[in-house]
Amino acid sequence: MSVDEATVRRIARLARIAVNDEEAHRLQGELSVILDWVEQLGEVDTAGVEPMTSVIPMVMKKRDDVVSDGAKADDVVANAPVSEDHFFVVPKVVE
Amino acid sequence: MDEMVRSAPKDKLIKGATGDWEVIIGLEVHAQVTSKSKLFSPASAEYGGAPNDHVSLIDAAMPGMLPVINEECVRQAIRTGLGLKARINLKSVFDRKNYFYPDLPQGYQISQFKQPIVGEGVVYLDMAEGEQIAVGIERLHLEQDAGKSIHDQHPSLSYVDLNRSGVALMEIVSKPDMRSADEAKAYVTKLRTILRYLGTCDGNMEEGSMRADVNVSVRRPGEPLGTRCEIKNVNSIRFVGQAIDYEARRQIDVIEDGGTISQETRLFDSRSGQTRSMRSKEEAHDYRYFPDPDLLPLEFDQPYVDALAAALPELPDEKKARFVADFGLSPYDAGILVGERVAADYFEQVAQGRDAKAAANWVINELFGRLNKDGVDIVESPVSAAQLGAIIDLVASGVISGKIAKDLFEIVWSEGGDPAEIVESRGMKQVTDTGAIEKAIDEVMAANPDKVAQAKEKPSMAGWFVGQVMKATGGKANPQAVNALLKDKLGLE
Amino acid sequence: MSELTGLTIAAARAALEKKEFSALELTEAYLGEIEGANGALNAYVAVTRDKARDMARACDERLARGEGRPLEGIPLGIKDLYCTQGVHAQACSHVLDGFLPRYESTVTANLWSAGAVMLGKLNMDEFAMGSSNETSYYGPAINPWRASGSEEKLVPGGSSGGSAAAVAARLCAGATATDTGGSIRQPAALTGTVGIKPTYGRCSRWGIVAFASSLDQAGPIARTVRDAAMMLGAMAGHDAKDTTSVDTPVPDYAAALGGSVKGMRIGIPREYRIDGMSAEIGALWDKGIDWLKASGAEIVEVSLPHTKYALPAYYIVAPAEASSNLARYDGVRYGLRVAGDDIIAMYENSRAAGFGAEVKRRIMVGTYVLSAGYYDAYYLKAQQVRTLIKRDFDSAFEKVDALLTPATPNSAFALGAMTDDPIAMYLNDVFTVTVNMAGLPGISVPAGFDARGLPLGLQLIGKPFDEANLFRLAQALEDAAGETPPAQRWW
Lengths: 95, 493, 491
What we know:
The complex is a heterotrimer of chains A (about 100), B (about 500) and C (about 500). Chain A is mostly helical.
């Protein structure tokens, strides 16, 4: 399956990665090659086959409803590029 | 979308310039699960808190952090499903809904897409004039709430607080079964009642514990469904109604002007009462759902569900039916009483061993009226069920008249105390001693010979005498005794 | 090389207990080696000297009290993918610029509770995406092995290239690593070291930067099978913070060593004789078969029909999960932020500057295969194929106790040799990736050298949670192959 440059740009936008023209062009080629290559899965008859959900059969454990974390706003924002009064700060978001 | 949906009766159609229109409404209600900690982290789910104080490193999506599910949230979702008479899925799957937003730290919301924990159910609405509507429930699933961005503190910056991030929500999706703003409002009200009965959501819409995404479309009666618009995050029942009315009219106007409705997400502005298109959503969303590989499928067995079902409290529909059947209440009165579980409990306590209809009248008319007047919640009612019961007993045994009882209620409301003692100490007892009443009648008759003469011609004059006697006895005379004695003395039949 | 750094973990432990030297002396010896070698090998991206010395002193106190724990005083290197409290943890990516976690991964915490000493953080492919350590933001780690008579720099494999290079060059007694498609076993094979990827769920993933959640597993790279067994014993265990970690006791792997493999049935999957397999690899495999036969094991040919589809299926599943796992690197809460006109531009600029080419490639592939209209054809199909791969193994394991295969299709290659051809690079994992897709344990053991004098490895694949038997079989191979001499020192 080969992809066109418009698709590359749409995917890059979805993935929130800025791409310039040169990158878009290069990625178009690379993605096409990779998608072509994985296309061989089409040869496998998977009719009625359950998709894998967990490789090791086990039942998911559940946690008790106990509050045992939080009250560590210092830690939460310690690595933030910009923070103020324990808030994360970002460029304004328009709704 | 299901084409086999009901058609609105004529009176629910909206008149447009070119004819009648039917509005089709479906709701997605987000209800915060009542739990101490979050859905996948052990941080507090409590409302409020200092910025980023109810946040674990999991909620902040630090590298390498993993979700672990809170059993209580699962239990609450199952109980809610049972309360909605819905199918409970013994196996469900958590998916990731991928999109970028500053208050979504993981870059995805953990939700349930293809296999929700609860399937189809139903909610019954009692509308005016005995009309009952069944609103289908499509599904209920568990998902994470997002954090909160504050946009109005700075001209060019937004501030992000993750206290809400990861709090458990139930998304309850209805079928497009509603045909008017009133029906939608009744649905949200009923849903809220059910959740509060179950104790699975506190229903506090001011704090955002419940909010609705409203899907609205319009069509000509009998024609296929129109294109719908989704109005996001409407946070009061009144606004749900306003938003629908506005949006339906807007769509009709667009179509009648020759335009078409484009499927979009809109916001409701409660100040203007209007909806507007969301600017940030111009980009088509592609959420790239896939099963969350950090979580295994959510599984439990039927005995677990059965045990929860067995322990479910009596729900409003069942309670209402019982009030009608066992207490002989009208469906209307029963419906009012079951609106809040505490009110229904209060009523039952009052009705215990008493005339249930009298109890219902007292609770609905006197108590609810007084609570509303002072804006007091029934939980904080100054008159307890035991006190109100005692007042009713005093009336029933003839110790006080109904009129005095209302005065007594007012005294208990503002001063408290044992009603019987108050009646005793303040001399509020009804006078049944015929001698005393006869004396009062004789005095009134003696003072008004002209009226006595008139009364013999015009029997309706008797009412005037009753009033005078009651006045003379400070309202304490037994009205039946006064009536009988008066007729006798005035020589009326 | 100092005498102390020449000791295996087992030997160093014995000597420490006998007070032949102190934990601090051992740690200093390694710090000295790192000082001298890291400029050439680039195995470490951060060296935690002070912390190492503090930890070693504490070990000496315990040893003095006779309270030595299983790894007391053993200096280890930690892959940069592990979050280590207050210490560089950036998955060798620019996007995590300056990130200092306020928490410790469960696996490293387990190691410190067992008495191990942290020397520093090890180089790796960015976000563990790569098979040569060349995608690291910090530049490639270099294989201490060189072809005879050549000075050409070779890759140590990847993604745990720094771990493998450091162990092979004696810059640590052992190293932690992770394996999503072969990232422990392939570099181990290319550096003459032992690497085990345990069963999915055996080690907690909590605190390890996620690449592909359904495939990632932690494991050790060490010099000998015994050392790997000792390390895994300390790393493994149930963790309530990781829902996918398994709540079964961890056997004493080291104690299981030395037992006979007589009568064990070893499967030889015929589909692993891939087209174009080099004669050397074929011969190595045959030699392994002979060794196990000679040890009394029974050799059985088995079939794993869907083998050839494992790699393409992996290159759908892993990028899909990664595209979502790496969405959190958005410049808001940690790491690199590059300004933009609005929030979207900030995301796009930060991620464009923060991620390297291979990571971007995989995020793009993953985003594409999950996008509307393609999910069923790619992701769902790949997960179905994964079920078939697992079934292949399940039926093979009805007949055999373990499988023997080559670990890699080739020995170490030159820097830059495959960087222009992503798929050629991906094919490095052709023998290892099936194991991740099925969640099984796999171990790579040094088994000899190719004609150029470069190490080659064999892989043993076990039943779920049968690591003890894998170690026992691996030791039989190790015994037969003889001790791997250290790489000729050129740095």
